[in-house]
Amino acid sequence: MTIRARTLALNCALLWLAGCGATTTVDEYRSSNQPIAIDASETVAILGRRDAGHYETDREFVDCIGAKLASSTVQVVPEQKLIDAIYPWFEPRVAPKTLGRLRQLLDNPLVLARINALQLRYLIWVDGSTESAQPSGSMSCAIGPGGGGCFGFAQWDKSSIYEAIVWDLRDRTERGRVRVDSQGTSYLIGAVAPIPMFTPVKSDACAGLGEQLSDYFEG
Hints:
By secondary structure, this protein is an alpha/beta fold. The protein is 31% helix and 43% strand. The strands form three sheets. Strands 1, 3, 6, 7, 8, 9 and 10 form a seven-stranded mixed sheet that branches. Strands 2-11 form a two-stranded parallel sheet. A two-stranded antiparallel ribbon has the order 4-5.
C-alpha cells in the first residue's frame, strides 16, 4: 500500500471512530418525588467504598462527583477531610457499608458530635469501578534503514459502573440511590506513529451521576 493510500485509509478510520463514543445509562430511585431539602448551613459528603487491601472506589471519581455537586448550591465536605475529622470510624476496615451499620455508628456520641461540627446532613456512599477488557487486534512496530513505524489496529472495551446511595444523617434514612453504567470502546491505530483514541467512560459516568445527584437537592 502506498503512503497516499495509507493516509486516505487512516483519515477514513479516524472519521469513523470520531463518531464512536460511550453509551451511558442512569437509573435512579427516590423515596419521594420531591427534591431533597437542604439548608444553606448544611453540608454533604461523598465517601467511596474501600475494603482494606483488595478493593477501592476510585478517589478521583469521588472527587469528580464532589466537584459536580459543589458547582450547584450544595456545600460539599471533601472526602479526606471527612475521613480525618471522624477518624478512625471511616477507615476502610470499619466504615459503614449499610444503613443499619451507619445507624449504629451514629449512636456513638463522639461520632455524632464530630458530624454535627461539620454540619453534615447527608452522606453519599459511592461503590463501583472502571474496568477494561483484554485488547483485540494486532499491532506491529519495526525500525529499518529508511526509518520506522507502527502498523495495525487494536481495540478494547471499557465500562464504568457506579452506584451512589444518599443517606440522611438526621433522620437516619435512605433518601435515594443512583446507578450509572457507561460502556465504550477505545482504539489504538498504528499508522507510522501509534494514535490512541480513548473513550471517556469514566468522565461520562461522573457527569451522569453528578448531574443526577445535583438534581436531588434544592437550596
